[in-house]
Amino acid sequence: MRLLHRVLAPDNLLPLFPVQWGPPPGPSVGPRDAILSVLYSDVGNFYETCGPDLGTRGWTGGNAQTTLFRTDRKLSPTFETSQAYNLLDYAALQEVLSEDDILMEKEWLSQPNDQMRFSFLPGDHNVEFQIKRVTLCALLPLDPSIIWPPQVFGAHIKRGKDEVDLSLAYAAWTYEIRPVPPRLIITRLRCNVETFPTLISAALKTAAEFGMEIVEVWNIPMELVDLTVKLGGETRPFEDHWPCYSWYGKSNGLNKNDQVEWINSEK
């Protein structure tokens, strides 16, 4: 794992190769063009010890909290809304993701550039990978009566003809059968406090239909945390599953990861 940094990033962005490790990987091994790498750990912060040399940290845990909703608990009637939404199959979701990509780029360009941060565009295979993973590789559900694999991968709140693109509100999701309990995991969430209850309601209904017991959201936006409690959700730190990253790009100091923020670390 220490050597993996060496084949991902160019040598000029890494510390000197430790002589006690023997010869370094040859120049033809790996892409050697990365400014960061991401690792999803199931063993907590272990991979922080796997740095590119003996004194540099490896993959650092970024934002690490999860929000859980149980499908056997209905939302309070207070939050039932009249907002109409469409469930999204794979093709329809791709169109929404492309729209989200454009909005994200516009938003980033309009923000102050005084903090190093990174994100992945949801339409750049980030959400798609999670769908392909469950449809091609996942185990069958425990209940044989459930039609599998599912064909619903998100929900999109309908907009009026005069509403601007900034009103885009949707959730993309995937499914995990194992480990139990099975869950629907939201992989991209764009909404506000008004549209969030509708999207969570759509996710809960879909999850129940496919035998999922939990709806899970990683690193929910701070402005929604209080609302999730009122909706019956529980937000808590990750115990084992950590989204981690190692930053190789521009930095003002040695501990590069301390200066970088991972935006939209959702799944």
Descriptive account of the structure:
With 267 residues, the chain is an alpha+beta fold. The protein has two domains: 2-64 and 241-262, no CATH class; 65-237, Aminopeptidase (3-Layer(aba) Sandwich). 25% of the residues lie in helices and 21% in strands. It has five helices and twelve strands. The strands form three sheets. A seven-stranded mixed sheet has the order 4-6-7-8-9-3-10, sandwiched between helices. The two termini are 22 Å apart. The mean pLDDT is 86.
The major beta sheet can be summarized as: 7 strands, mixed
Show unreliable segments.
none
Overall geometry = globular
CATH domain fold name of the largest domain = Aminopeptidase
Give the N-terminus to C-terminus distance in angstroms: 22 Å
Gyration radius, in Å: 20 Å
At the first level of CATH, the class of the largest domain is Alpha Beta
Relevant CATH superfamily of the largest domain: Gcn5-related N-acetyltransferase (GNAT)
**Count of alpha and pi helical runs:** 5
Spatially, the strands of the biggest sheet line up as 4-6-7-8-9-3-10
Could you give the count of β-strands?
Answer: 12
User: Can you give the helix content as a percent range?
Assistant: 10-25%
The proportion of residues in beta strands is: 15-25%
